[in-house]
Amino acid sequence: MTQDSGASERTQPEEHRVVVLDTIEVTPLVRRLVFGGERLGAAFTTPDGAHAPYLKLVLGAAETPIIRTYSIRHLDAARDEMQVDFVLHAEEGPGSAFGRSARRGATARLRGPGHLAVARCSDHRLFADHCGLPALAHLLEHLPPEARGTAAIEVPDASEIQTLRAPGGVAITWLLRPPGAPSALADRFASSPAEPDARDLLVWAGAEAAIARRVRASARTRWQVPPQRCQVLNYWRHGRAEGTFSFVA
């Protein structure tokens, strides 16, 4: 291959063709797709200790693809099957539309995986809104049995509450936020009565960008949590499509 002077060859991320094997209605607004494909397990296995693994769903034409990021809810590497939860938004974008309409036998193109490096701590303060819930659920399931802390999860109504697996020392609180109401996540964090030991504390949050920034500011100023143990992520932003804002708060 001949290249212009000063240009560098760009490697196109590998795409994996998968098939929808099953669909599961987790709640009225969360639909789980079970994907299968040849060597899918090997392709999407992440290193030991990796948390909140994610993939890129590739939609549209190959020349002008639309990319949306989703958490991997569960991977069964031995069976080459992977579960991904789709939140069905009222203002439907391309990813949500795919999640709502996909049926058994539908095909999809995926890139990945990626994952987050989460510091190992004994105490945890975890926060998520509806969009951050799949990643937080995966994180809870992979904490060590002796982990302790709290997890606050905000959903539109009681029908969106899920049964999650977590260590016995981690208390889960569900916050109900009807459409149009302000989020209580950041206030919940700021008003937490317990003063944890910041030397052994992990703060993790996945939420709308403005809420994520408030959580991060409180963690850094109130509890003096260092950056490597304060992982706050912008899962979405009002009025903006993915790719037009930073993922890290």
Describe it for me?
The relative contact order is 0.14. The protein has helices at 40-44, 94-101, 133-141, 185-190, 209-222; strands spanning 15-27, 30-36, 51-59, 66-71, 74-76, 81-87, 107-116, 123-128, 148-155, 169-176, 201-208, 230-236. With 249 residues, the protein is an alpha/beta fold. The model is unreliable at 1-11 (pLDDT under 50). The strands form 2 sheets. It has a 7-stranded antiparallel sheet with strand order 4-3-7-1-2-6-5. The protein has a 5-stranded parallel sheet with strand order 10-9-8-11-12, sandwiched between helices. It contains 5 helices and 12 strands. The radius of gyration is 19 Å and the shape is globular. The protein starts with 14 loop residues before the first strand and ends in a 13-residue tail after the last strand. It folds into 2 domains: 15-115, Translation factors (Elongation Factor Tu (Ef-tu), domain 3, Beta Barrel), CATH 2.40.30; 123-236, 3-Layer(aba) Sandwich (Rossmann fold), CATH 3.40.50. Belongs to the SIP oxidoreductase family. This is NADPH-dependent ferric siderophore reductase. It comes from Enterovirga rhinocerotis.
Topology:
Blueprint: E1 15-27, E2 30-36, H1 40-44, E3 51-59, E4 66-71, E5 74-76, E6 81-87, H2 94-101, E7 107-116, E8 123-128, H3 133-141, E9 148-155, E10 169-176, H4 185-190, E11 201-208, H5 209-222, E12 230-236
Parallel strand pairs: 8-9, 8-11, 9-10, 11-12
Antiparallel strand pairs: 1-2, 1-7, 2-6, 3-4, 3-7, 5-6
